[in-house]
Amino acid sequence: MNNFRLLKTSGKARAGVLTTPHGVISTPVLCPVGSQGSVKTLTPQEVKDLGMDMILANTYHLYLRPGITIIEKLGGLHRFMDWDGAILTDSGGYQVFSLSRLRKVTDEGVTFRSHIDGSQYTLTPELAIQYQEALGADIIMVLDECVGHDESREKVYAAMVRTHHWAERCLEAHQRREQSLFAIIQGGTYPELRKQSVDTLTGLDFDGYAIGGLSIGEPKRVTFDITEQTASLLPPDKPRYLMGVGAPEDIVECVGRGIDIFDCALPTRVARNGALYTKTGRVDIMNASFREQREPIEADCTCYTCRHFSVAYLHHLFRSRELLAYRLATIHNLAFMSNLVRSIRTAILNGTFESFRQSFLASYKTTDEKTRLTQKKKWLEARSEIRTEED
Amino acid sequence: MNNFRLLKTSGKARAGVLTTPHGVISTPVLCPVGSQGSVKTLTPQEVKDLGMDMILANTYHLYLRPGITIIEKLGGLHRFMDWDGAILTDSGGYQVFSLSRLRKVTDEGVTFRSHIDGSQYTLTPELAIQYQEALGADIIMVLDECVGHDESREKVYAAMVRTHHWAERCLEAHQRREQSLFAIIQGGTYPELRKQSVDTLTGLDFDGYAIGGLSIGEPKRVTFDITEQTASLLPPDKPRYLMGVGAPEDIVECVGRGIDIFDCALPTRVARNGALYTKTGRVDIMNASFREQREPIEADCTCYTCRHFSVAYLHHLFRSRELLAYRLATIHNLAFMSNLVRSIRTAILNGTFESFRQSFLASYKTTDEKTRLTQKKKWLEARSEIRTEED
Fold first, then answer.
1. Rg of chain A over all Cα atoms, to the nearest angstrom
2. Are B193 and B185 in contact (CB under 8 A)?
3. Looking at CA atoms only, how far is residue A294 from chain B in angstroms?
4. How many domains does chain B have?
5. Which of B136, B135, B123, B142 is nearest to B208 (CA)?
6. Which of B239, B261, B283 is the last residue of a domain?
7. Given A232, A264, A296, which residue is the final one in a domain?
8. Is B327's Cβ below 8 Å from some Cβ in A?
């Protein structure tokens, strides 16, 4: 099934249209993350009003809680969470790698312990497809084996080969063909392995191709280089999805390297930690300098938060751990991303992407490498919690 | 300034109209609590859309954080929190008693330590008025001395006398007369002290009268008896406000005893703890029996939550500690309260309040005394926290 149409390129940047059972999606597109069937703090209506057409949900999370069978009984994930836009589900491969404990990977599949209660489960390529079909997502992913960015070439190679075998089994198991199935290119930071992965997987009939195993701790230069090299090898008529990358500057850079689809928990996660996007970079709302600032976060932003509230009020809500704080920050950051992605697409359609890219990066102060890696490490090691005080 | 008009009585129940600088309010009225300048989880627009015309904010909380001066500089509390309905502020007397540490009460005022960082502050009747005037609330309260429900008659008497002296000083200090100033009747569970308090305070020119020092651990029968006795002594042409009472059954019972205004953190607080109001009583959304229930909380409820989501989804959100859970539950409980208060008013205007009361109480299973007191104690001793997991 060819569900993708490439409309225009500007350099390597691509503008296209992706057709799903739940709507036609303009690309490039960013999917906000709703791992457990909720984009944190927001109603589905708000997500839609923010211009988001597709969200990512996690099979791993939903399998553990409430369970795939319950969601299926209640009419599928769209109905369960009252979201009528498109849904992309990850297969669980990455979450088993990043979240669960005591995993054991064999050719058959992966055995892991739940990060919630330690109970043991087995996931196979066939089950991953079965679960995603039951959830009813518009785009589903093959089960892949993920390894750390600092693993030996030998281990990266073995995981890649296993991912290829699993991909074949996923394709075989895939029944509900109205759901698009994407393969995941692996191969770590080794260009020759990436090429081998592309060659193998593009030889099979997938609806789209994802680049996995990046943005997991490697230097950003490497993320960009591998993305560029891998994307250049992928067929132009299939959508390309870079998994887990979603900082504003990274989206600009990776659209410029040929990517169409992004998902990332970052815009919503950093929002809950009080980091708000502006055209000049991220600001920390907890900073004391904001205590009395009567302006909104961004003077010309038209999001609900900026139209109604001063920085001082947001600062107060964050200091006071008011639950509204996390909502208002999430709204602003998603509005920022939504505008960014729209501007990128307009620039591509106008053939002016490169000047857009330069102009954006000239004013947007990126988070430095050290801060970024520290944050990533901290997050991977121990999920932070929001604590709020009662009245 | 006479800002209250009594329209109709039905037994002791009263329907009236209260005029404030931020709108005309139909009574009986329930004020949701937004201690820190936010009705937890909701935007001001949502609070308004739920039919709420007046909210309660706490001078104590706002004084400690972000500080009265900052709110004043930013144009007052209405503008700070973007709420254009009416605001009632408590003076801080009750919070000093229930929240702060190491308080020392003298005739001059009260010295206490912040529950946030332990720093020391002094509050006097004059300062309480000055702060509330600076916040710009529509209805402000005198500073009162609160004592526990199980204190000796001697202590209750002394606190009452001091409250009377402070009330006089508050009246003296009150400058911005467009803001209504309410006195607070004290006297604990002693009817003769309540009478003395009413006699003293109604001899002064207040815009309304609150009944304080109830619902702080005494048996509910006592709450009702003292409310009824005190209300019966108050002038009919002034509004009557029962502080801190707001469970559905209590509102019905106390409207029936002559109360016009209520505030209570209960509907929103129990919502965040997963207790949802229905016509037959409170249900605990965490109960395993709800895991697969596809119906909404209440089939005929027209709130956003019930129109869009199954009980199973709410159950899942609560189990998963998703932030949206607290929002959806808060919306439902406030919608329930809003409908309840409107039905009460209609019944009064139709002269059928007593049959409404009987019919409501016959179907609504009230939370038993023991559970209620345990909850209250637990809450007073240690504020609970909401913890959420990250994506």
1. 20
2. no
3. 6
4. 2
5. B142
6. B261
7. A264
8. yes
Beta-carbon contacts of residue B317 (< 8 Å; ≥ 6 apart): A36, A38, B324, B325, B328
Contact of A205 with chain B, judged by CB distance below 8 Å, is answered with no
Taking CA A362 as the corner, what is the angle to CA A361 and CA A363, rounded to the nearest 5 degrees? 90
Domain CATH code at residue B130: 3.20.20.105
Contact: B320, A386; criterion CB under 8 Å: no
Q: How many angstroms separate the CA of residue B93 from the nearest CA in chain A?
A: 15
B82 vs A308, A320, A389: nearest CB: A308
A interface mutation test: which of B289, B324, B386 has the most A CBs within 10 A?
A: B324
For residue B12, being part of any structural domain is answered with no
Q: Are residues A255 and A290 in the same domain?
A: no
Catalytic residue check, A263? yes
Partner residue opposite B390 with nearest CB, options A42, A315, A383: A383
Co-location of B80 and B53 in the same domain: yes
Q: To 10 degrees, what angle do helices B323-349 and B353-363 make?
A: 150
Asked, for residue A313, whether it belongs to a domain, the answer is yes
Q: How far is B314 from chain A (nearest CA, A)?
A: 9
Nearest CA in chain A to B313: A80
Active site annotation includes B391? no
List, for residues B27-50, the tens digit of each pLDDT value: 999 999 999 999 999 999 999 999
Same domain, B171 and B289: no
8 Å CB contact between A265 and A39:
no
Of all residues in chain B, the one with the smallest CA distance to A75 is B294
Please tell me which of the candidates B37, B42, B386 has its beta carbon nearest to residue A316: B37
Range of the domain at A330: 272-381
Give me the pLDDT at residue A204, please: 97
* Of residues B38, B309, B390, nearest to A322 (C-beta): B38
pLDDT at residue A384, as a whole number: 47
pLDDT on residue B390:
60
Min Cα separation A183/chain B (Å): 23
**Do B256 and B348 have their domain in common?**
no
Q: How confident is the model at residue B384 (pLDDT cuts 50, 70, 90)?
A: very low
Reading the block at residue A233, the tokens are 């090898």
Integer angstrom CA distances of residue A55 from A6, B227, B234: 21, 53, 58
- What residue type is A193 in one-letter code? L
In a domain, B356, yes or no: yes
Catalytic residue among A53, A144, A250, A263: A263
- A to B CB pairs, distance under 8 Å: 154
What does the pLDDT look like over A137-183, one tens digit per residue?
999 999 999 999 999 999 999 999 999 999 999 999 999 999 999 99
Determine contact, residues B213/B148, Cβ cutoff 8 Å: no
Q: How far is the CA of B66 from the CAs of A320, B44, B332, in angstroms?
A: 9, 19, 30
Report how far residue A80's alpha carbon sits from residue A38's, in angstroms, rounded to the nearest whole number.
Answer: 10
Q: Chain B window 223-262: which residues touch A at a Cβ cutoff of 8 Å?
A: none
| Residue B240 three-state SS | strand
Separation of alpha carbons A162 and B226, rounded Å = 75
Which of these is catalytic: B138, B250, B263, B391?
B263
Q: Are residues B254 and B280 in the same domain?
A: no
Compute the distance between CA of residue B322 and CA of residue B388 in angstroms, rounded to an integer: 6
Is there a single domain that holds both residue A292 and residue A219? Answer: no
Helix (H) or strand (E) holding B38: none
pLDDT for B386 equals 58
Q: Report which residue type is found at B284.
A: D
Same domain assignment for residues B289 and B239: no
Q: Rounded to the nearest 5°, which phi and psi values hold at A100?
A: -85, 170
CA–centroid distance for B122 within its chain: 24
Q: Residue B14 domain-assigned?
A: no
User: Are B240 and B277 contained in the same domain?
Assistant: no
- Whole-number Å distance between alpha carbons of A304 and A50: 10
Contact yes or no for B320 and A36 at CB 8 A: yes
